[in-house]
């Protein structure tokens, strides 16, 4: 009899561990459950394309702005590797070309343009291309006079793009203002976590703001605030449910109900018709 049992080989990707409760689950089961833990209901992070497929009819969308890819415009000095190297690694790891994927599709039969951010690509940080893709998504919604939806998750601005990154806050906000002027509905879903420049720009400007259960939402993180104000923060501070009670968030919605609830609200908010061309 052997003293040691050989560790059983588990094929990579067949099982996954919930980051919240630590329980193992079949990857396929988790995927079928829209990446929500079957044990503890923890809403896991999903990438942009997955989110679009979860929300749109027939899991189909027509991508917008995929040809735009980030570049090291500032030749940012890094301790290890260059920004270009990091971008390459992020593309491989996250399986996307940037921290947001934008597409046209239908949600319960309603034509929409949707932008879904991705925390696994450089912490969902907003650089020039993220800002431009969001702006193009808004422009597409405006041109087609269909609602614009954003699923926002972000750690903040893209450090390596410096001030250019911060400018995206003004640029995206200007586009959202145009949607409002033209009477085009704009809905936001805040996913875990949504912080920094994204939370302080387009993610805060929805006509209706949804959030996923347990999502961390705020500008600076709780530790930074606690250290600054030297006071104990209340229980659940900056979580979706806390912000619902404070009126910052309109609805906290389980991922399984998200599509249905978005469709319900969209049916109330019909885009204003295109203004009549002046005659004569
Ligand atoms: Zn779990």
In short:
This protein has 280 residues and is an alpha/beta fold. The chain has helices at 27-32, 48-55, 83-94, 128-144, 162-181, 196-199, 222-229, 240-245, 255-268; strands at 15-17, 24-26, 62-64, 100-107, 110-117, 148-154, 186-194, 208-211, 251-252. It has a seven-stranded mixed β-sheet.
What does this structure look like?
The protein has 280 residues and is of the alpha/beta class. Helix content is 34%, strand content 17%. Strands 3-4-5-6-7-8-9 form a seven-stranded mixed β-sheet. The chain has a two-stranded antiparallel ribbon with strand order 1-2.
Identify the notable features of this structure and list them briefly.
280 residues; alpha/beta; 2-enoyl-CoA Hydratase, Chain A, domain 1; 2 domains; two-stranded antiparallel ribbon; 9 helices; 9 strands; 34% helix; globular
């Amino acid at each position: 009899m052997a003293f040691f049992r050989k560790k059983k080989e588990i094929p990579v990707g067949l099982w996954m561990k919930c980051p919240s409760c630590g329980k193992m689950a079949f990857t396929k089961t988790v995927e079928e459950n829209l990446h929500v833990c079957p044990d503890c209901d923890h809403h896991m992070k999903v990438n942009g394309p997955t989110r679009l497929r979860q929300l749109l009819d027939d899991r189909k969308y027509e991508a917008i702005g995929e040809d735009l890819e980030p570049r090291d415009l500032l030749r940012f000095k890094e301790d290890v590797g260059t920004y270009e190297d990091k971008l390459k690694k992020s593309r491989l790891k996250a399986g996307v070309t940037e921290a947001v994927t934008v597409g046209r599709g239908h949600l319960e039969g309603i034509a929409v343009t949707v932008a879904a951010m991705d925390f696994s690509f450089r912490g969902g940080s907003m650089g020039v291309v993220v800002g431009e893709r969001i702006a193009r998504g808004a422009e597409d919604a405006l041109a087609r006079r269909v609602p614009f939806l954003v699923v926002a998750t972000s750690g903040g601005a893209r450090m390596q793009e410096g001030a250019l990154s911060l400018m995206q806050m003004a640029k995206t906000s200007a586009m959202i203002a145009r949607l409002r002027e033209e009477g085009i509905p704009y809905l936001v879903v805040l996913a875990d976590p949504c912080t920094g420049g994204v939370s302080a720009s387009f993610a805060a400007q929805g006509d209706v703001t949804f959030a996923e259960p347990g999502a961390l939402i705020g500008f600076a993180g709780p530790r930074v605030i606690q250290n600054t104000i030297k006071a104990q923060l209340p229980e659940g501070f900056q979580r979706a449910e806390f912000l619902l009670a404070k009126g910052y968030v309109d609805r906290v919605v389980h991922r399984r109900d998200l599509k249905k609830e978005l469709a319900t609200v969209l049916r109330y908010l019909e885009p204003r018709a295109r203004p009549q061309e002046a005659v004569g």
